[in-house]
Amino acid sequence: MIEVHHLIKHFTKIVKEKGVGGSLKSLFAPQKELVRAVDDVSFQVAEGEILGFIGPNGAGKSTVIKMLTGILSPTDGWCRINGYIPQKERKRYVREIGVVFGQRTQLWWDLPLTETYTVLKEIYDIPSAEYKQRLEFLDHVLELGPIMSSPVRTLSLGQRMRADIAASMLHKPRVLFLDEPTIGLDIVVKDSIRRAIREINRTEKTTIILTTHDLNDIEQLCQRIVLIDKGKLVYDGDLDRIRTNFGKIREITFMLEEADQVQRIPFPPHEDLDIKQEGAKIRLRFNTEVCSLPQMLAIILQAVQVKDISVQDVDIEEILRRVYQRQVAL
Amino acid sequence: MRLKAYTPFTSAGIQSAIAYKWNFLGFFFGQIFFTFVMFFLWRAVFRHTPGGLIGGFTFLDMTIYIFVANITGFLADTDASYVVGEEIVQGSISMRLIKPVSFNLSILFTELGQKLIIITLVAIPVFLGLEWFRYSQSGHLEFSIATFTIYLVSVSLSYLVMFFFDVCFGYLAFIFKNLWGINMLKFGVLNFLSGGMVPLGLLPMAIQRALTVLPFASMRYTPVMIYTGKYQGLMILSALGTQILWVLLLYGLSSLIWKLTERHLTIQGG
């Protein structure tokens, strides 16, 4: 059970003007600026829930996660996880949580992977029998077998990430914080990591907070999302609702034989249609409820000759943008 | 504190020391080179000193001093400020914070593992060589197990003084964001004040006293004086006492700084 209560984090940042002159100026008379990285965020997570915690870069996601894991102290407000205030009893609290920061590793860089696990076994005081059983389970869901004896620095990003996730789960944490666990990974690895997360959540009722930029992560893992931007909470609720409202947006990019042919395409008239043109390259965003994807493709392909065409899902940034434009819808 | 939780840090330290053996060997040969440079420097000084005596030191005394001071410095040396500073600057300190262990003790035990390798590979041959040299000059064996044991205790204390001093120093990274420059400054200043360049006995009395009361003599000079037999009886006891006091004080200080920074922590990046 996680409670986040009016959490606030302010940083002071030193503003430097351009060039050598600016550097000198900030050396003698530093100009300070207050950054409201997290601005009054509150939410709760029930036991066994997987919460998608999303927002664009610099929204304050990582700062919230750092406060929840006890690494950072809030300027104001508090959070309580399983009855602990992380900043008050760090050592006891972190026994019950697992953390993965996708951009960092907790593995021992120079040593074979197994050694990191041995270190963790002692740190968390895991009995040998339990440890062995646990490793078997993690090996089963994350396929660690072939890399167990390789030095960590020789692992690929995907292997390292799987190893890192296993490291965070070795001590059967009740709460798991996954900060961009799929960043930079290919689809196959992403898929196996998602499967592992689901499996662990299902079998052990682990509460999971997941931050990601990949909408697929969210769709496949989370029932509920919390969306923040510029440090403020923008949305807290069902993924389904946000998907009905915003998830039906698709983007088609295509190259025309000639730039002016675009006028020949009979686009259905609707406000939820956004066309951008750069020379012969056209980018089209539309709501599939108004016009389905096959329909739209047919309209385009019948009207003009295209050299190349591709279809994309909208990313979280786009959804956020739409949340802003139509805030009433939430 | 559960000591058992820290033993794997030591074994991991041993393994990573072995993984980066060239790094360490390069450093070691650099030290040897430096030691001989100092030896030749002092030899030149003594040759031009009438009477061959400087501040009560004969050339033989000085030679022994230089070699003992350097191996002692090598044994008591620490990378703590570098490790602490780097973790703060890179932000990887967060990976230590999410573990139920004490920050500075986990660094200490990792470094102890690396030390273990240094001691077996380097210290033993160096001390054998030293004793052989002393024997060849004086004609009788000066080695005593009792003195050497006290020396080892004193070196260990020197290391702890250095370590906790350096941890405190490393926390400066929270303020300066990059420690390279002031680390160089610290190295030079400490090397001199702890007796690495010149025996503290050659310095003016007032400075000598100050350095003995302050932690500097405890960082290196004390064990060297014990090994070379310049300290005897009560003098040894009071010197060891001073060392223990500084270990405790600096440990307390590093814990205090840690408690304070834990509250105002800013982790960089990611």
UniProtKB/TrEMBL annotation, chain A:
GO terms for molecular function: ATP binding; ATP hydrolysis activity. Gene3D superfamilies: P-loop containing nucleotide triphosphate hydrolases. SUPFAM superfamilies: P-loop containing nucleoside triphosphate hydrolases (SSF52540). It holds the Pfam family ABC_tran. The keyword Iron-sulfur does not apply. Keywords: ATP-binding, Nucleotide-binding, Transport. Residues 15-255 form the ABC transporter domain. InterPro entries: AAA+_ATPase, ABC_transporter-like_ATP-bd, ABC_transporter-like_CS, ABC_transporter_ATP-binding, P-loop_NTPase. It comes from the Bacteria. The keyword Mitochondrion does not apply. This is ATP-binding cassette domain-containing protein. It comes from Gracilinema caldarium.
TrEMBL record, chain B:
It comes from the Bacteria. Keywords: Membrane, Transmembrane, Transmembrane helix. It holds the Pfam family ABC2_membrane_6. The chain crosses the membrane at residues 20-41, 53-76, 116-133, 145-176, 188-211, 231-253. This is Antibiotic ABC transporter permease. It comes from Gracilinema caldarium.
